[in-house]
Prior knowledge:
Layout: H1 4-17, E1 28-29, E2 45-52, E3 55-62, E4 76-82, E5 87-93, E6 101-106, E7 116-122, E8 128-131, H2 147-155, H3 168-171, H4 183-193, H5 201-206, H6 229-243, H7 258-262, E9 272-275, E10 281-284, H8 301-314, H9 318-334, H10 348-358
Antiparallel strand pairs: 1-6, 2-3, 3-4, 4-8, 5-7, 6-7, 9-10
This protein binds a DNA duplex (13 and 13 nucleotides) through α4.
Domain Formamidopyrimidine-DNA glycosylase catalytic: 2-127
Pfam families: Fapy_DNA_glyco (PF01149), Neil1-DNA_bind (PF09292)
Protein name: Formamidopyrimidine-DNA glycosylase catalytic domain-containing protein
Amino acid sequence: MPEGPELHLSSLFINDSVKGLIFSGEIHKSDVSKNPTIKWDVPFYTITAESRGKEMKLWLEEYTPKEGTQAMPPQKISILFRFGMSGCFKLSSVDEIPKHSHLRFFTAKNNADTIQVLNFVDFRRFGKWEVNVDWGSDRGPCPITDYENFRHNIVNNLENPAFKNKAICEVLLNQKYFNGIGNYLRAEILFRSKIAPFDDAYNVLCDWKHAAFYPIKTENGAAPSNQDPLYLCHAICSEVLKLSGGYDVETGLKENGSFEKWLQCYQNPHMKSLTDRNKRTIWFDGEPGPLVPNDSNIRRPKTKRRIVENVVEKSVTGVKARKRNVVTESTELQASSRIPTRRSPRFAHVLELKGEQTL
DNA sequence: CGTCCACGTCTAC
DNA sequence: TAGACCTGGACGG
């Protein structure tokens, strides 16, 4: 779930779904969570949210029913969340607290209305929260909400060692500059910009150093070229935000399949994949580029051969089948490409489409 | 049953 | 630059 767009959608979801709700009572933490207990003892409070890259802040503000009667300004605290690999927010009833809910905010009892619960759900528990802290100091501006500063922070710091002699696919995961970009976004960004994942990051980014913030329209009004990777960091996030069809994190996006259909490269069995220096899988098309680590893709050599044979066997006929064959052979020579060993259920639709094409 | 893999950090040698 | 931190789904035997 959670890269920049999901964090942003979560904040939109909370601001929308919790708008007008009054919360009350203590904030409940699961027994198993190692994150801090939140001491917050006011009769009533409201919740708002904001996101920045791969972080999200909740603001809790004391609610006083009658305006102007409070002697003191309302109390306020913030909770900074990082979602890890599986964190998300879900609204539920008291009777249907989701499994793996680790932090719960309860609405006040209110005659007619049933109590609702805002849950931080995180089945792998890599997610973290901290109370009353600022955004992570080692994280850059948000490509979604602060694109211009995001871009400045990169082009003004290109001489930093973070960009020197590094593969662009690895630099794209450096949250000091690419806060919010994760493994699926880097694949989609590089795929659309037609940049080889293991090209030198400094060289690549220097090419776009003086480009316009937004692609410039051609004179005849034709669509501008959108291959600027920095612009794509913003634009591709925006596409994901639009997919949900509103802020409905529950039924939108990942659960209705629109996200899977939107992905062009990530975990697509027709693409190539390699592991980067941090053993993270990068999905790509075409040439890998010069900075492929020596040990990339030697993780499961035993199964690889068998998988390659399976793939060729199943590729029946047609251009794609031949193309595929070439791909596997050339990467075998390099001893550095991984053929997806399983197809993700997420890509069932791709395979279906392919079936239609080859029939 | 077992192994591998997953939208991400962290920190310890 | 490994591992650690976690749960669970897909797949293999």
